[in-house]
Specification:
226 residues; hypothetical protein yedk fold; 11% helix; 31% strand
Length: 226
């Protein structure tokens, strides 16, 4: 599952997606509960961007006494059955989660994971398949969809040994509008596949030690529009 990524900059929303950014600012890295931009389609010909909370059910919206659960990722295999996600899935509340890169733990060097940065070789941004919902007080929240990646040459290297490997779903650029406008759940499933490993790359990008006072390492994800 993916719970940490670098969202795109304001100007990138204008330059690549042709969308005016939301008026409020967002952080350079997104973690569960943080606000970050998502892209929706109000009509087939009109996209918009809105700041949304990462996690379909924010922790402060879980009823008192109920078990806390993570809703930052939704499994493609059960998305139509899980109560948390089935309504937005069936209503066609699909979105794109734009990012420069995302981060996953890698255990290849030993029992202690090393955070790896993952990006696309030939595209300056990733647009990840997501679902969104709104709340009575005006908050919008979102989740990212995932698929099995046990046999994926790159994503199969991430996460703990012995655990199922999962990958977020990267939507190719020529399918962005088709995904956003798709209202048929069965057709929407055809978008849920692994991105080709040869079009992706990764590198170690560890977090600084706790208490070091150093900012998280975002510079390695800086966008190059050249």
């Amino acid at each position: 599952m993916c719970t940490n990524y670098a969202p795109i900059h304001r100007q990138v929303l204008r330059d690549i997606f042709g969308i005016e950014p939301p008026p409020l600012e967002w952080k350079a890295e997104t973690w569960p509960g943080y606000l970050a931009p998502i892209i929706r389609a109000n009509t087939p010909a009109h996209r918009d961007a809105v700041l949304a909370s990462f996690g379909m059910v924010p922790r402060d919206r879980i009823p008192a006494g109920a078990r806390k659960f993570d809703s930052t990722n939704a499994r493609a295999e059960s998305i139509g059955e899980r109560p948390t996600f089935s309504g937005p899935w069936k209503r066609g509340q699909r979105c794109l989660v734009p990012m420069l890169c995302f981060y996953e733990p890698n255990y290849e060097l030993g029992p202690k994971p090393v955070r790896h940065r993952i990006w696309l070789r030939d595209e300056p941004v990733l647009a990840v398949a997501g679902l969104w919902r709104d709340w009575p007080d005006g908050l919008v929240s979102f989740t990212m969809l995932t698929v099995n990646a046990d046999k994926h040459p790159l994503m199969g290297r991430m996460h703990a040994p012995g655990k199922e490997k999962r990958s977020i779903v990267v939507i190719p650029r020529d399918e962005w509008d088709d995904w956003l406008s798709c209202r048929d759940p069965e057709r929407a499933r055809t978008f849920l596949r692994n991105y080709p490993a040869e079009a992706m790359d990764s590198a170690p990008d560890p977090l600084p030690p706790r208490g070091s006072g150093s900012p998280r390492p975002i510079a390695s994800c800086e966008l190059d529009l050249g």
